[in-house]
Every structure is written in C-alpha cells, then in structure tokens.
Write a structure and sequence with these properties.
Elements (H helix, E strand, L loop, with lengths): L2 H14 L6 H15 L4 E8 L2 E8 L10 E2 L4 H8 L4 E3 L24 E9 L2 E10 L10 H38 L15 H13 L6 E4 L6 H10 L8 E5 L8 H6 E2 L11 E2 L1 H4 L4 E5 L6 H13 L1 E3 L6 E3 L3 E6 L3 H6 L5 H7 L2 E4 L9 H16 L4 E4 L1 H9 L5 H18 L7 E4 L1 H4 L23 H19 L4 H8 L3 H10 L7
Helix pairs in contact: 1-2, 1-4, 2-4, 12-14, 16-17
Length: 517
C-alpha cells in the first residue's frame, strides 16, 4: 500500500481526536478509515460490556448486527482476540466458528471459507473492545502487515479515549452550568445547612444518618417550604457518592412536552428544535445522585419510563434506539399525599412503591419549637452581610412573635419574613445604624397569619342530631369558619386546617359547601 493511501486512512482519525463528535459518527469514521487502509468485505467495532462484546459500528454486515450481543465465552475467536497482545490472523481452515456467520451482506446461509483478522483496542491498558475484518477471499490478508493494523488500533483507541474525555468534560460543563444557573437565582447563595435542636429535628437527622449511606430510593415528604432540597443534599453528602454530582430537577417547572427530554436526553432531529444530541439528567448524574423535586407532578407516561430506568438502569434518549447504562441513586421529594394520588389514579402504584423504599418526613416549622430562632439566626446573618450591617438582632418582642406564629409557609416564609423586616426597619431610620434591632412590628406577622386559633364552632345541642350528622355538621362548620377567617382563600384555609387543598375541596363538596364559597 502506498504511503498516500495510508495517510488518507489515518489523517481523518488524527483530526477526529480533537473533535466533539457523537459516538455514532466517530465510530463510523473509524471503520471508513479502516476499510481504506485494509480493504475488506465486512468490518466491525465491538465494545466490551461486562462479559459481552456489543457492536457499536459495522460495515458490510446486516443492520441487525448492531442489536446483537456476543458473549465472549460463546465465541472463541473473539475470546482469542481479546486475550492476544496484538493482531491475530485466523487461517482460512480455522475450526473456530465465526461470530458473523449469516450476518455478512451478500452471503446467504453458512459463511464459506474466508479470511479473518482482528485486534484488541486498549484504553488505559485495559481491553476496551475489538476491531474485526472479514474478507470472502481466503487469501485477502495474506500479505497484510499486521503491525499496520496494530498501529491503526492504537490510533482508534486514542480516538475512543479522547471521546470519553470530551464527553466527561461536556458532562462536567453541563453540571457546572446547572450550578451556575442555580447560583444566579434570587436570594443569598451562602451554603445552607440543616440546623436545630428540637426533638423533631434530631429525629430527622437520625433518619438521614440511616438512609444516607444506603443505595435505597428515598422519598422526602413535607409541606412546602420545609427544606426538602436541603435534606436531599444532606443525604447525598452522607452517601458514598458524595464526591460525584448531585443533579436536581424541579418536575413542576417542566412543560409536559419537555419532561422526557430533560430526564432522558434526545438525539439530533428527535423533535422540532432538537438541533444536536443532548444528554439527559440521568446521564449527567451517572455515578451520583438525581434529585426529583415535586415528583408528584410527573405525567403517568413518564412515570412508566422512569420505573423502567430505576429497575434496569438503562436510559434511552428520545429518538434513539440505543440504550445507555447509568448508575444513579434517586431521591425524590413531594408536598403531596402520593398515596392519595395512587388512589385517584394520578400516580402509578408500582412507581410510588419504587420511590418510597425509604420514606422520610420533614417536620413543619411549627413542630420544631425554638428551632425557629436558630434558623432565624442564619437568615439574620445572611441579611446582615447583604446589607453591610455591623450587627443584626431580634429584640424580645420579635423573638416572641416568631415563636408564637404558626408558619404556614415554613422555613421559606421565615426567610422572606426576615428579609422584609430588615428592609422595613432600615426604611424607618434616617441614619443607617451599626447594629440594627428588629422589633415585632417590623416582622409584620399579624398581617400575614393570625397567631391564635379562632374559637371552635358552637356546640351542638344534645339530642338534636345522630352521631354521623353531628360529625358532618361540626366538620362543615370548621371549614366555613376557616374560609371566613381567610376571606374565602381555600389554600390559606387548607393550611390553617392542616389538610391538603385537594382533600379540603373534596371534603367540602361532600358536605355541600359550594366551591365559590
């Protein structure tokens, strides 16, 4: 072979070392270069996956070849190639069965006597896969310099390794981009941590300590604003995956049409606007943790696909017929009653049970006693730094107001309350003080939510109703009083009664209370 022809085969591979190509294109170009270098009737690139060899590119073989797996123990030719230190040429009369028998284009039935060579590809000194070449002429490779094939295999291995590094850098860039977007969100970006001394908080920490090191799916349940994402991050930090990425996705913020693309990724042309291949959150979280916030918002069809990923560890991008194996620990969070959603057919029962292997409830702020002051201290310090104050404190009245409030919005509401209070207090002062004290009036809690419960409904006269009617009358009066106190706001009434809004609406309909009441 002339040097010009050798260069024509090798130059594209050298160029590809620095290119960000999808795997299909990279592998196809490898085989095109190989067929220029060593003309043959069929060639294939196979990747070692456990104890199987999986074709990732093929030329001159039937299209279904790419859907097959070749167990190494069942194919002695492939096993010999993997074990050999360099290229191997099999004699035309070799008794070893050919793995491509019946798969070579243009050959019907049994593959006749032919010529076959192959070479192992090593990445970081470990076998990555094989290159194989078949020719229907029995003497096609008799004069081939096997060192040339070995040189090509080394260059091919370098291309594969470069692709892996480019993919790794791309993944890291995607993770960094997600973290950067998170850092640009409104609000302070100091590192938050779980804090508190109450019995409810200590119990939460014990459960995190138990669940964190495990590989179990954890379902974090709790009201809006209790800090479920902080709990998820604590679980990730306590696991063996702590040095790997934790990828978060808010299921409630995704349009239904884009949910599967975000989770599983897509290939170019999968839908209008898919101008390039894109990895999904599962692939980005490979080796680490995927946090699904507001998991109860996922469509039923997506739940079914997620269940398959959780069971098999295989992800299939939209528009692709290839699967990618991922190793991901799943943590989910919800403020909904998922068991009730299962009863209403809004969630698959098998998906719910797969998620809630380790259910973990985050207590509401009103259940945590004096923890409200501890958490307020962290928000006060953030506000002090943000407003460049020498000191920021709560006076006795403000502390009492915080302890007496019911906190329907939990920790998130506390954060916003402290932030507003500082702005109000500064606005009333002609000169910015070195140390600012917040009073109860600055918090403005009485205008948001009454701290004392309304009087119970009037007692029902004995003997006027039977037991069931008495209970229904009492429930109806409770709901009407809550709606009255909250000016007809059903969400606020549900928080005050400590029930889910949807459950309150159903109960109201059963009791004959009109939705517009």
């Amino acid at each position: 072979m002339t040097h010009a022809r050798q260069l024509a085969a090798l130059l594209p591979l050298i160029t590809d070392l620095t290119q960000e190509l999808d795997d299909e294109t990279r592998y196809r170009r490898l085989l095109e270069g190989l067929r220029v270098l060593l003309p043959c009737d069929a060639t294939a690139l196979l990747r070692l996956d456990g104890t199987d060899l999986v074709p990732v590119a093929a030329s001159g073989l039937s299209p279904d070849t790419l859907g097959r797996r070749f167990p190494v123990h069942a194919h002695p030719r492939l096993a010999q190639l993997l074990a050999a230190p360099g290229p191997v040429r099999f004699p035309a009369d070799s008794p070893l069965p050919d793995p491509y028998d019946g798969l070579v284009d243009g050959v019907h039935g049994h593959l006749p006597v032919h010529d076959c060579i192959g070479c192992v590809l090593r990445v970081e000194s470990r076998p990555w896969g094989l290159l194989t070449l078949d020719a229907l002429d029995s003497g096609r490779f008799s004069g081939v310099d096997l060192d040339l094939l070995e040189a090509f295999a080394s260059l091919a291995a370098a291309s594969v390794a470069a692709a892996g590094r480019i993919r790794s850098l791309s993944d890291e860039a995607e993770v960094a981009r997600a973290q950067f977007v998170h850092a640009l969100e409104p609000g302070p970006r100091v590192e938050r941590r779980l804090s508190g001394q109450s019995a409810a908080h200590r119990q939460l920490l014990r459960e995190i300590e138990l669940a964190g090191p495990s590989e179990l799916c954890v379902l974090i349940q709790g009201e809006t604003g209790v800090g479920k994402e902080l709990v998820a991050r604590a679980l990730h930090a306590a696991s063996a995956r702590a040095n790997k990425p934790m990828i978060s996705i808010n299921c409630a913020a995704l349009p239904e049409a884009l949910v599967e693309s975000e989770l599983f990724g897509h290939v170019k042309g999968a839908f209008t606007g898919a101008v390039s291949d894109r990895r999904g959150k599962f692939e980005l979280a490979d080796g680490g943790t995927l946090f699904l916030d507001e998991v109860g918002e996922l469509p039923l069809a997506t739940q079914a696909k997620l269940l398959r990923v959780l069971q098999d560890g295989q992800v299939q991008r939209l528009g692709s017929d290839r699967e990618h194996r991922v190793d991901v620990r799943l943590i989910a969070a919800t403020n909904r009653d998922l068991a009730d959603q299962v009863r209403q057919k809004a969630m698959r029962a098998d998906f719910y049970h797969r998620l809630s292997v380790f259910p973990l409830r985050v207590p509401a702020l009103r259940e945590r006693g004096r923890d409200v002051l501890t958490i307020a201290g962290a928000f006060l310090e953030e506000a002090r730094a943000r407003h460049r104050l020498g000191g920021l404190r709560l006076d006795g009245g403000a502390q009492a107001a915080l302890l007496g409030y019911t906190w329907p919005g939990n920790v998130r509401e506390l954060e916003h309350t402290i932030g507003r209070a500082v702005i109000r207090a500064l606005a009333d002062l002609p000169v910015r003080p070195r140390i600012l004290s917040l009073a109860a009036a600055d918090l403005g809690l009485s205008a948001v939510e009454p701290t004392t419960s309304a009087p119970p409904p009037a007692p029902i006269a004995a003997g006027t109703l039977d037991y069931r009617e008495a209970v229904k009358t009492y429930e109806r009066q409770l709901i009407l009083d809550a709606l009255e106190r909250h000016a007809g706001n059903w969400a606020a009434a549900a928080r005050a009664l400590q029930v889910d809004r949807a459950n309150l609406a159903r109960m109201a309909r059963r009791l004959g209370i009109a939705p517009g009441r």
